[in-house]
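Propose amino acids for all 262 sites.
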């Protein structure tokens, strides 16, 4: 494990901050790190900057993320990574569909693809205009960017998959990459399957070790470990597991169903 020092903090939105560390990295977009705050916890986070200085983008949501948001420049944290399997880019015309903080691993993916001469269309979703993440960054890299917000304060009022459906009426792509709410990703894969477009998803599951030993993140009826064989999976791999889009497990291995009332 490395000990990294925070050298920059970027306030992306009201609830999202990016932390840049003094750790040199050359990761594959979609890979993650295990970030450790002594006396608090260790959590997996997708890398939002994968080349040069390591960056991680964190939504203030629970205890760990709240403590991360309280850190200042100069603070030190433990980092294990990059870990896991990232996205694999093929073809020349790429579609990206992201929701919320799920845009974090998609931003370096867009930059990597564009730097390699690919054409990129990115559909970015959020609840409101204040929460749209990395729109300017992805535009600056050269992508065509479309936005969807739940309340209609930016772009299309509705879902990213609404925009995707309209685009696919007249255009096709060599690959589609998605990260965000799992229900959204299920809908993305339904559309790409219909149009015969290969797709890759980035999954979130409860990780304890992050290196494939404990089995906490193994998916039902396949045994594939999200931290080791993923977190980026091919669409065909998702066809084989019974839990994708239905439920995940917490630290006590209790099934938590998507859309269920808490």
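Proposal:
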């Amino acid at each position: 494990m490395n000990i990294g020092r925070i050298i920059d903090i970027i306030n992306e939105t009201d609830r999202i901050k990016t932390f840049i560390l003094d750790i040199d990295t050359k990761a594959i977009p979609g890979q993650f790190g295990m970030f450790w705050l002594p006396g608090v916890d260790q959590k997996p986070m997708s890398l939002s900057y994968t080349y040069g200085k390591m960056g991680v983008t964190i939504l203030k949501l629970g205890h760990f993320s709240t403590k991360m948001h309280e850190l200042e420049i100069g603070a030190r944290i433990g980092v294990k990574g990059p870990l896991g399997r990232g996205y694999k880019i093929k073809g020349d015309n790429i579609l990206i569909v992201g929701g919320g903080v799920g845009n974090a691993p998609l931003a370096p993916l867009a930059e990597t693809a564009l730097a390699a001469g690919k054409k990129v269309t990115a559909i970015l979703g959020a609840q409101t205009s204040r929460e749209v993440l990395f729109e300017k960054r992805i535009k600056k890299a050269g992508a065509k960017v479309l936005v969807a917000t739940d309340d209609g304060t930016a772009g299309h009022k509705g879902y990213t998959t609404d925009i995707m459906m309209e685009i696919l009426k007249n255009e096709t792509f060599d690959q589609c990459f998605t990260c965000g709410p799992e229900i959204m990703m299920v809908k993305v894969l339904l559309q790409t399957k219909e149009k015969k477009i290969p797709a890759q998803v980035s999954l979130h599951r409860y990780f304890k070790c992050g290196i494939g030993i404990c089995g906490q993140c193994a998916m039902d009826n396949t045994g594939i470990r999200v931290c080791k064989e993923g977190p980026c999976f091919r669409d065909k791999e998702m066809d084989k597991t019974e839990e994708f889009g239905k439920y995940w497990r917490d630290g006590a291995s209790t099934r938590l169903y998507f859309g269920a009332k808490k």
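The first helix runs from residue 63 to 69. The longest strand covers residues 16-26.
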